[in-house]
Amino acid sequence: MTAPEPFRFPVAARYAGMESSPLKDIFALAARPDVVSFAGGIPDPALFELEDVRAAYDWVLTHQGARSLQYGVSEGEPELREQAARRVSRHLPTSAGQIRITSGSQEGLFVAAQAMLEPGDVVLVESPTYLAAVQAFAVHGARMIGVETDDHGVIPEALERSIREHHPKFVYLIPTFQNPTGRTMGTDRRREVAEVLLRTGTALVEDDPYGELSFTGTTFPPIASLPGMSERTLLMNSMSKLMSPGVRIGWIRAEGRVLDTLAVAKAAISMQSSVVDQLTVARYLEVCDLDAHVARVSAVYRTRRDALSAALTPLLPPGAHVTLPDGGMFLWAALGEGYDAQAMLADAVAAGVAYLPGWSFYADNPDRSTMRLSFVTHAPEVIGSAVARLGEVIAAHGAR
Amino acid sequence: MTAPEPFRFPVAARYAGMESSPLKDIFALAARPDVVSFAGGIPDPALFELEDVRAAYDWVLTHQGARSLQYGVSEGEPELREQAARRVSRHLPTSAGQIRITSGSQEGLFVAAQAMLEPGDVVLVESPTYLAAVQAFAVHGARMIGVETDDHGVIPEALERSIREHHPKFVYLIPTFQNPTGRTMGTDRRREVAEVLLRTGTALVEDDPYGELSFTGTTFPPIASLPGMSERTLLMNSMSKLMSPGVRIGWIRAEGRVLDTLAVAKAAISMQSSVVDQLTVARYLEVCDLDAHVARVSAVYRTRRDALSAALTPLLPPGAHVTLPDGGMFLWAALGEGYDAQAMLADAVAAGVAYLPGWSFYADNPDRSTMRLSFVTHAPEVIGSAVARLGEVIAAHGAR
């Protein structure tokens, strides 16, 4: 006698074979206590304004208690939409009615995909781009095509060529302190990209979770704020990198009829975001000085970027390329021909240091010699010794 | 000169024409301060255990502060999964590893749909069934087919016939204190339905947000707990009706490989649920007596069900049918031939009373004479006078 076959749940094609992922295994490895990990984009918890957040929750539960525990609306709580609109309005005039609250940027990307994508649609993305965005688009049956970039972001001519060839449903860009490269599109590049999008009648999903984490004091107006762009852009912000990722609050800024579609999609996905969290973030934004907090965080991150860059750059082989981001959380290194960052990872972890192999950030044609390193989690002295060990691994692989 | 055409965002077919909905208009009407609304399924906020919830948030932010503000994992926080497993284990042995946390039941339904549904798939649902579940399935391109029900829920013979004819991807049932009817499947009916599902090799999505809100002290083991069923059932629970809908915490109980798919889908949709909220609900479940709270709430809801039933039943026309639920939040009335609850609503609202027309709860072949009334929001004296006005409207429409 044999045991009966266990029941197998049907799995939609979009998730077939995705029960585990190499990245999940990497993060599991990187979480080992003996490993200094640059793999995640994890904020340093020592920088959380815990007391301010605790006070905001307490205020909400004391003064808006019944409301905070009750159902809300899919569009988001009015106070939070008002606070979000004020922040966006620094660069782009925005009313609360033009804000849709989401449970972090990830849900924002998923809502945008739900609202717009059909199976077989093309989405143009930077090459490389943020991998979880690619996943949110891919499970909608979209085909991602990478557009060539340089140190100033996506190349306008390449973008226009790709748009004319592939007729994308939208273009997805992270113009400021990009994930994974840390690169930023300057003012001229933004204008050139906007002109391409306007000329070709293309929609833009502009993801801006890092833009406020500037190391130079300079912040960049979103592409959405350029003439003609606001009506064709879904601009996404998140509190994850500024206040707390655990609270899961972000928003989409949009105009016109798409706002209704976004609200209907949000309702289908999760009805509404946590009302307690929404009201708490609104309170926090109202009474706390987020700008001062972000300035403190950015100053710390800057010293860590410096430590990572100073330690890593001399250890890289000739012909390697490494970014020196003006903000954000990530630095990107391409070791160059002959290196495979994925193959090298096991040795790196054995040496007590982890990074994220860069191939996973490419929609197509990955440069397998690339790696993403987040500089935000560890103190400079930890960074220095860990990168020294990584240098030995790189040298050993270069000698092969 | 004419102004240029405004840019139109592409809208996926799944949301085409869904910029607004008749239901949204109804809820807007029903929210008028001069209207006593039975339309929503809104818990009475006076029954929230505000002080307990506030204390739980405060404890988490004091003792698990940095962790609560940091990224978590898509599966959900271990403490909450442990607490959820304990509650589910009252009827069905369950480990924390078999729990996936979602942002309320709505996201649970959406995650299940993402994990399983392809465009063109059939989902069998009770006729009538919960309309927001229908929406979560519909935006995945599924075709919903309603299965005939009686006062004991879905009819096993009709279910088997439908399964053999339509080969559904899964069957979606709310066996206890169903939304919208308030009906409950008894023990025998559950066994018969389980036998059909086992015999036909069919997966079940079992939605149980109301089961603990019992007016008789009797709670019903889920169909998932019957022999052979646990491995083919996604069992969904929610804290929305027990503790707070604003906190947006629910879970899916499952077994085997589908657990991995659910986690990957959850990650694609929203990365993870609010870590603060998860840890707070875990703390609440650990130190507060949710059973005692639910007993208090159920006792209040019972008096309100009695008030609504006593007021409404004598006012219904001959041939009308009304349910007398043993728990939950909803009562369902079918006025019978010649009545159109949607057409009657404007007069009801003018008379200061609102309900939800029943047609929207049908996947197909709606009985337009039906209406859903929630008895949980208002005190008995408010219910009595509002229903008297509704009775006049019904009488006027019957005389036409």
TrEMBL record, chains A, B:
InterPro entries, A to Z: Aminotransferase_I/II_large (IPR004839), Class-I_PLP-dep_aminotransf (IPR050859), PyrdxlP-dep_Trfase (IPR015424), PyrdxlP-dep_Trfase_major (IPR015421), PyrdxlP-dep_Trfase_small (IPR015422)
GO biological process, one term: alpha-amino acid metabolic process
Single GO term (MF): pyridoxal phosphate binding
Domain Aminotransferase class I/classII large residue range list: 52-390
Superkingdom of this protein's organism: Bacteria
Cofactor dependence: pyridoxal 5'-phosphate
Keywords linked to the UniProt accession: Aminotransferase, Pyridoxal phosphate, Transferase
Quaternary structure note: Homodimer.
Protein family: Belongs to the class-I pyridoxal-phosphate-dependent aminotransferase family.
Protein name: Transcriptional regulator
Species this chain originates from: Brachybacterium phenoliresistens
